[in-house]
Amino acid sequence: MSPNRRYPILAEQVSVEQTVDRSRFLATLCPAATVTEAQDLVERLRGECPDATHHCWAYLVGPPGSTAQVGMSDDGEPHGTAGRPMLDVLQHCGLGDIAAVVTRWFGGTKLGKGGLVRAYGGTVGLALADAETSLRTCWKELTLRIGYAQVSAVQHRYPAHEVELLDEVFAADVTHHVRLPDEHRAAFEVAIMDATAGTIEVSEP
Known about the structure:
Blueprint: E1 7-10, E2 14-20, E3 23-31, H1 35-48, E4 54-61, E5 69-73, H2 83-91, E6 98-105, H3 112-129, E7 133-136, E8 139-146, H4 151-155, E9 164-170, E10 174-181, H5 185-195, E11 201-203
Antiparallel strand pairs: 1-7, 2-3, 3-6, 4-5, 4-6, 8-10, 8-11, 9-10
Helix pairs in contact: 2-3
């Protein structure tokens, strides 16, 4: 995994429905930062659509294209015709932390293996086409103990490293509780150590 821990994710849930040879296919996509969140989506859709024939699903937790935390299920469809094509779409869509459920209501016409692959993968693709995205950032919180004479020099380094000041306490020295993107932490610590001749104290809350 790249040390840059920012990547695009879904901004919110998106749902798209299509009908293929009288069968209804409803794709529901949600951001899922954990496997539990992905599994919760599956259970929620089962509860919301109890009359459906299948609830096939796939998820990818982690950055786009990753394989460390993935899952899929054909939920009674022929092996490899639903979960796998759905996961293939997720792994090539450029988004991370994403879960998809395709709910099917059987319309009486068998689609065959190829038809099912196209229907399940295609419905996920349609949902992705309508999806808005945002950026996932892994934040790190730090506590800085700074001498009064060095506060200005330290704060001057905040903008370049996207540091947000969350809290400031004045006592024998100045304590800053800050957060910043995790990929900036190492460079930020080097910068403030240089600015204070190594006298600043850095710790995690």
